Here is the input.
Amino acid sequence: MPGQKFRLILFCLIFTSIIVFCVIFGGYSSFWRARNRITDAKALLTQICQERVNLADIIIKDFKNAGLEADMADFRQCAGMAADVLKTLKTIDPPLDENQTRHLENSQADLTQFFKNTLKYLKPPVRQLSADMAEELTSQIYGIQDKLFVAAKSYNDEVIYYNTRTKESMPSLIAKMFGFDKIHYIPVDQDKFLPAKQTFKSVP
Here is the structure.
């Protein structure tokens, strides 16, 4: 009998240890996967932002070829500043701090204003631009804005999920065990990353 009780107790201890290990390991891997998803979402967001910078450069060149370079002088600097911000952010692993997040938002907001002003030239196009070119540029501006909205929303969804998990009762214990609770991600201001129809609705 004593031997059977010992074996039963030993079995229960081993079984409990396995359960505890699975819970801890599962919680750890869940936080690790969440961080990886944020890294991927940040990479996608900065990629779309870079595509917007590239599109701004194309527009500036097209306007220059059409003899409208003077009208775009202020926005060449805007595109350059956005490119500089992205170059810095691409070398930084998440989490981005408050200043870095605000720099990204503001530089992209400036680009959005650049695209709004561009659309004013394209609706209807000035005589120096062909109708086909105006239509193509308009389509690209609307398309990249929608892609930006989706990327920003995806990033925010992952950030909010992670931040919430570190504060929930059981997950927060695991977060504290491995230091995940000390990592806080800052979502971007979604109002600065709206879809094209909302962003450009004020453009005549």
The radius of gyration is 25 Å. The mean pLDDT is 83. The CA atoms of residues 28 and 178 lie 8 Å apart. Residues 2-199 form one domain.
